[in-house]
Amino acid sequence: MATATVTVPASTPAAGALRRPRSTTGIASWFTTVDHKKIGLLYGMTAILFFVIGGVEALLIRLQLAAPGGNILSAQEYNTLFTMHGTTMVFLVVMPTAAAVGNYFVPLQIGARDVAFPRLNAYGYWAFLAGGLFLYSSFFLGGAPDGGWFGYANLTSDYSFGTGIDFWIIGLIITGIGSLTASLNFIVTILNMRAPGMTFMRMPVFTWMILVISFLLIGAIPVITIGLIELFFDRNFGTNFFNVVKGGDPILWQHLFWLFGHPEVYILILPPMGIVSEVLPVFARKPLFGYSFVVFSGVAIGFMGWGVWAHHMFSVGLGPAAVTGFTLSTMFIAVPTGVKIFNWMGTLWGGSIRFKTPMLFAIGFVAMFIIGGLSGVTHGVSPADRQQTDTYYVVAHFHYVLFGGAMFGIFSGVYYWFPKMFGKLLHEGLGKLHFWLMFVGFNLTFGPMHVLGLQGQPRRTYTYPEGMGWDFWNLISTIGSFTIALSIAVFLYNIFRTARKGEMASDDPWDARTLEWSISSPPPPHNFDRVPMVEARDDFWHQKYGEDNEGRPVARVRGGSNGDAPGGHDEHIHMPSPSYWPLVSALGLPFIGYGLIFHWGWLVLAGLLVAWGIFAWAMEPDVEPESEPEPELEPELEGVE
Amino acid sequence: MAVATHTLAPDVEDTTSHVTATGISNVKLAMWAFLGSECLFFGALISTYLLYRGRSAEGPLPSDVYDIPFTSVSSFVLLMSSLAMVLAVAAIYRGDERRMRIWLTTTALLGMVFVGGQVFEFTEFVRQGLKLDTNLFGSSFFVLTGFHGAHVTAGVLWLLSLVGYSLRRGIGPEKAIAVDVAGLYWHFVDVVWIVIFTVVYLVPQ
To answer: Residue A161 CB: number of other CB atoms within 10 A?
Structure first.
């Protein structure tokens, strides 16, 4: 697999009380790993776990609503389920999936051996996991949150009893810390660690989109953190931020939440847009149509995403000026999104298309996203929005963009990159079955919700009486949701089957275009034996193909310029050593939360744990010194932290 | 915090000596991005304060409790700490570790004086009947300035850790970036205070 010798760090007394971990294989190594690929896999596996949990919550909701007068769930149970379903899918599934794919493939796509801050990166994962587990521990410690994923004050500040909302607040702050550190790492990695020649306008679109959402996240996370802190103080320390009696204004919560929440929507959708922008060119065997338009549209969405938040609040009475302004800005942001859709279609036009599973999901993404985008434009028209607010029409809309859009894009990426990550191809027939079941099930589930919404069925209401005319479409929707569940079962079986007897994949099974396909499958720990010299956009494609007089690709004779070619390798590549400290310092975070909710004693202990972790981390060299003398710093080593 | 304490790792080559694609060292770029994020953190708190300015239904009101001369002095102390911080960074880039320790300690002491002044101010306000839950002013004032004070406290701990590290293991010019980045954080916390002092204390209600 790897032709280069990777330095195994020698054992030296660690700075903290614990001996430095050394193993890079085995179960224990996953807890101390700082390898961005392993961290990417951890994010991915955790996201799949939470996806299944969030999916079960959705199925319970659909069972309850299958027929009028459903009595499977009580109103309170229903409230906690839709709250946890939304929170899980947004914060614990789609966001970490971007971190998963980004972690694994951004360094590979920019020709880097590692990320800028390997331990900070590990810390981001552990904080995310800690926050997710903390949130779910609420089920066993006095009841889960029940205020919706948006947690509107003063419902959450004054009228939600028990500690569920406190778990929700602290859980989101902890996952926010993880997102923040992950974003800082992505920003510095992408800006600073590009291989020679990898200019901005040669970067793969997926890497571009991760860069854009990282900037969105470092701006959006602090805003919701302040909202959450104010809510926590209102609930626990008697402040008056959302207390109407003392003159506080619950609308402030909505502004803070949606000032985070709308950039968040683009944080969720831009990475899948990036994935689709990678997949479509490969399976159409054409370069991405209008690369710079796609990139700049993504950047434009990133900027404009900050100016549309109040379209979530048209019905609260902001006044005609604000409503008009936000209607206009909402109309405008549809423009760069539309530009992207036309570019994707332009990429397909005239291509020699191969309908492999990743391609099916990518096309499904484009089609479903158009529907979701159009229903989104109808929300943007504020008079129409008055009719749609808080109905199932809204539920239909955001599932078309976040499931039909984001999840289809993510599955496209999973099928596309699976052979690179594991060296085996997922079964194509099962993959297609997965796609068609999910495609049909998805439209059965969420298509009827448009109708139900316009007929007036309210969201977040645990049951409905007979005779409203909603029975038929609700039943169809429930049937659709179980079809989706079946498709996910097929997907999980496909992974299980592939692990046991899957077809081995070559290094470049799709004849792809970007640098990650130039190295072995799975990649060696140090990624590139030689740091690539990038000479063009889609550099790997141009290594493989020239053009004839009419611009058709002609295969080049392989000249061993491939980074994986035998012979050329460096003797000493220093990879950062594994470390306990990211895990230790993240482990303290949920216990700080328990301290704030239950007893201050935990607070002290957990605070000390975090402090210990940070100090030991600071004292620890990121690469353990070798016993042999340090060789001359070779150019290839530059950029490795 | 983790971002920057990270730079203390002793056996790493100074990050500035690596050629990065932008020419800015990794830690410094990360700190700038983090401070950008912090701008929105304080931006949201200051917006909350401004939104609720003059909307408290009952007293004590700002005019009842503010002691502008006192806060001006403690603000001046904090501003002077930035000067000391600049001198500490300059010293370590010259390789003068002893002076760096002196100036870092000075910075930390000035920071502690500021935090002490804030503790005194808070106590005084509570004595005059302004608490976290008294009115909108109390809530937004204490949470805003409290989080700023927490940032200063974290900065003081960071600076003292650098002094301790320097005494134990030494910080050579090749690791000056660790002090430099701490300095960026410290200056940011100072700049935020200038905004808070102006908006919260000086602009007439």
So the answer is: 9
- In-domain check, residue B27: yes
B9 falls within a domain: no
> How much is the pLDDT for A552?
78
pLDDT tens digits along A134-182:
999 999 998 999 999 999 998 999 898 889 999 999 999 999 999 999 9
Which CATH number covers residue B176?
A: 1.20.120.80
Q: Per residue in A260-278, is it b (16+ CB within 10 Å) or e — as a string?
A: bbbbbbbbbbbbbbbbbbb
Indicate which CATH number applies to the domain containing A50.
1.20.210.10
DSSP designation for A553: E
Print the domain residue range for A149.
27-564+577-637
pTM of the model: 0.91
Q: Which of A225, A246, A608 to mutate to test the interface with B (most CBs of B within 10 A)?
A: A246
Cα–Cα distance between A199 and A257 in angstroms, integer? 36
Residue A570 counted as domain residue: no
Contacts of B30 in chain A (CB under 8 A): 116-117, 184-185, 187-188
Please tell me the distance from the alpha carbon of residue A434 to that of residue B174, in angstroms, as a whole number. 55
A38-64 pLDDT, tens per residue? 999 999 999 999 999 999 999 999 999
Question: Does B187 map to a domain?
Answer: yes
Work out how many domains chain A is built from and give that number.
1
The model's pLDDT over A321-368, given as tens digits with 9 standing for 90+, comes to 999 999 999 999 999 999 999 999 999 999 999 999 999 999 999 999
Cα A91 to Cα A398: distance, rounded to the nearest angstrom: 15
Nearest-by-CA chain B residue for A227: B44
Q: Which candidate from A180, A246, A640 shows the least CB-CB separation from B37?
A: A180
Domain assignment of residue B13, yes or no: no
Q: Is residue A15 part of a domain?
A: no
DSSP assignments along A170-209, one per residue: HHHHHHHHHHHHHHHHHHHHHHH-PPTT--GGGS-HHHHH
What's the pLDDT tens digit per position in B122-155? 999 999 999 999 999 999 999 999 999 999 999 9
